[in-house]
Amino acid sequence: MVRCPKRGRTLSKNKIPLDHSTWMLVRRLLREGVRPYLGRILLALLCMALVAAATAASAWLMDPVVNKVFVDRNADLLVPVGAAVLATFAVKGLASYGQAALMGYVGLRVIADMQNRLFAHLLKMDLAFFHAQQTGGLISRLTLDVYMMRAAVSTALTGFGKDALSVAFLVGVMFYQDWMLATVSFVVFPIAVLPIVRLGRRMRRVTANTQRQLGEFTTLLEQTFHGMRVVKGYGMEAYEQARTATLVESVFKLVYKAARTRAASSPVMETLGGLAVTVVIVYGGSRVIGGTTTAGAFFSFITALLMAYQPMKALANLNSNLQEGLAAAQRLFELLDERPTIREDATGAALEVTGGRVRFRDVFFTYDGEKTALDGLSLDVPAGRTVALVGPSGAGKSTILNLIPRFYDVTDGAITIDGADIRSVTLASLRSKIALVSQEITLFDDTVRANIAYGRLDASDAEIEEAARNAAAHEFIMALPQGYDTVVGEQGVTLSGGQRQRLAIARAMLRNAPILLLDEATSALDTESERLVQAALERLMKGRTTVVVAHRLSTVVSAHLIHVIDRGRVVESGTHHELLERDGVYARLYALQFEREPNPTGPMRARA
User: Fold this and answer.
1) Beta bridge partner(s), residue 386
2) Rounded alpha-carbon distances, angstroms, from residue 191 to 169, 180, 199, 202, 265
3) By the 8 A CB rule, do 585 and 566 touch?
4) What whole-number distance in Å separates Cα of residue 543 and Cα of residue 540?
């Protein structure tokens, strides 16, 4: 039997409290999503009023049609009454088109605006936020939730507009024709309010659970497709199929429950509608027979009642539809109310790099508030020099690199660049002075040219080619089917590891930043690829302040300074030869690696 563990994540607690009441959600949705299109909405409401008036007029016309044409046999009224009916339906058709077109525009604009707003908001969030989220959950909110919210906007406005106005006009006709009969007919309808409200609340809960499950489903699909090589390599097809089937079944049950909840209002309205029509036929028929009212008035009344039934039924379903959309809106607002932990100083100035000296002063850092990653760490990276960080796995080397561009903020202490605390400068200026090349290369499903130009979007073709030549990438690029215009596929799947790495180096070269961060940039490469990449890195590091994280000590023996990191502290510092002479931690690490690497790849060449 295949066991399928249930996995999921929730939003962080760093958010503004959200009032989940229906009225507060509706107000916020109207204020933040709909208000910019108030003019079009007012025009749509005018069209809805015309639709409602035309609907009521068609019911009212039954009185002269029956009394004047059929009962009194007045032939002179045939054409005028027929023309009035035609005009009524023409106005109703044109107004229906107008309100549908206007509301369609508003609904689609709300989607586009919300998606743009959400994506822009997510881009401002820090890495800790994305590490705590499921990718599928975020995608689900940007797609499914936004579309469901649009349904709430369109349904609510149309319902409160066209349907409510139609009912109001038709009820007016009914009271005009026979107020006593109208009063008797509508006594039963308030009974339906309580169950309909309860169904709406249930619908919001079911919808919220469904959206969460769909987010998990999207995440599972994304992970499975991305890791298909591992799935097939380990023969885990049955396991993944079982996991997917479990989620599909869960989504099916929730969607089916929503469908049953949505349909539950139908028997209530059908029963009450039938009861109202029965009362009208029995009571109204007796009044016509008794001569209290005319047949035309009765037919006009019952026509208005029957025509009012459909919009009344739509209004009964409106709460369920509205609650579905509000469940999605609630999830979207929760995401929008998230606040990044990395924030800029309101008075921050642009970072000016004169030399590029990086200093850590008594830095403490923890990822989860419990386990300490850096424990009072202090180190110095001289301007224009290459400094290597070495040590056992989990010592805190990559954490140091992540703190320099403020992917995370220090818990205590300070990091300075040329004496300026990085928390006192703008994020854009800080990160513009830093280029990062890591073992995990990110390439986009775009052309080679576009992937290199990601380092500087305004670069010319000549500058892109020069960066590729310096990164030893030009030759293999020209051998591709379309050269620089070749699409590399998702994550550069059509390229080798060494080729992907050299494109990343070309991107960093094009950026031409004074500070360079290298995180295990050659650890996953074969000997030939490593030789080419290492030569490209030598050119990239020239004249720059460079921080190198490496497990393979043979690649950093020529660094100007080596810091040995262990348990979040600097335990040794010096050049390669100085550290060997001390016969400490570095010497032991080097001896162990030398035993495993009898013919290590040549080290980085020393630079002046």
Assistant:
1) 546
2) 22, 19, 14, 19, 12
3) yes
4) 8
Q: Are 357 and 381 contacting, i.e. CB atoms less than 8 angstroms apart?
A: yes
| Span 196-239, pLDDT tens digits | 666 666 776 777 777 778 777 777 777 777 677 677 776 778 88
Q: How many CB atoms lie within 10 A of CB 279?
A: 16
pTM: 0.72
User: What's the full length of the chain, in residues?
Assistant: 608
Burial of 435 (0-12, 13-18, 19+ CB in 10 A): buried
Question: Can you tell me which residue has the tokens 């809805």?
Answer: 48
Distance, in Å, from the CA atom of 227 to the CA atom of 229, rounded to the nearest integer, reads: 5
Intervals of the chain under pLDDT 50: 1-19, 597-608
Instruction: Provide the CB-side half-sphere exposure for 305 (13 A, CA).
Output: 29
DSSP string, 178-212: -HHHHHHHHSSGGGGHHHHHHHHHHHHHHHHHHHH
How far is Cα 509 from Cα 469, in angstroms, rounded to an integer?
Answer: 10
Asked if 423 and 409 touch (Cβ cutoff 8 Å), the reply is yes
**The one-letter amino acid at 568:** G
Which token pair is 75? 């032939």
d(CA 151, CA 323): 10
Q: List pLDDT tens digits, range 96-113.
A: 888 888 888 888 888 888
Question: C-alpha distances in angstroms, 65 versus 78, 226, 277, 535, 575?
Answer: 8, 69, 21, 94, 104
Task: Provide the H-helix boundaries in 440-550.
Answer: 448-453, 461-470, 474-478, 497-511, 527-541
The reported pLDDT for the residue numbered 387 is 92
* pLDDT for residue 130: 81
Query: Please, which residues have CB within 8 angstroms of residue 118's CB and are 6 or more apart in sequence?
Result: 141, 142, 146, 332, 335, 336
Q: Are 211 and 334 in contact (CB under 8 A)?
A: no
Q: Which residue is associated with the tokens 């032991």?
A: 588
- Measure the CA–CA gap between 578 and 382, rounded to whole angstroms: 18
Cα Rg, the chain, nearest whole Å: 35
pLDDT at 7: 41
| Residues 261-281: tens digit of each pLDDT | 767 666 766 676 667 667 777
Residue carrying structure tokens 């068609």: 58
